[in-house]
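Researcher: I'm preparing a figure for a lab meeting and need a structural model of a single chain. I don't have an experimental structure, so a prediction will have to do for now. The sequence is pasted below. Please return the structure as tokens so I can convert it later.
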Amino acid sequence: MRRLGIALVLVLGSLGCRPRAVASNTAGGATSTEAVMLFVEASRRQDLQAMSMVWGNEESLTRDRVDRAELERRLLIIVCHVRHDESRIGAAQLGEAGRVIHRVETVRGSRSATIPFTTVKNSRSGRWFVEDIDLRPAREICNAEPVTRPVP
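Model: Understood. Here is the structure written out token by token.
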């Protein structure tokens, strides 16, 4: 059995496969900033499942409140606006009713946008979710050149 494991590692290594991080089954982020980081990275990878694990409100995940087709439609629209070549999450600003706002600077090709993300702490889990994203500043990015770096 040990030889099979070693052979598998050697074969995968020779094919250029890299070990991938194991996806977390924990919804939300431990902090407001982590929730935004997880969402932005998932959108860069166009990983709708990972995005749905961080998108919600103080009561529940969005995926628990809307049907699957609607959820996927909304997430695809968000991906169009938020996917990027480069990004930087700005400092947190306090919003209303305990919400926190982060401005995320994104660059895709020759275009850039600063997108406000609003996060909220979930009352049941104590984890942070991305509650709202103002996509208006990123409208032009939807029509930008494709992402220049390959997504791992």
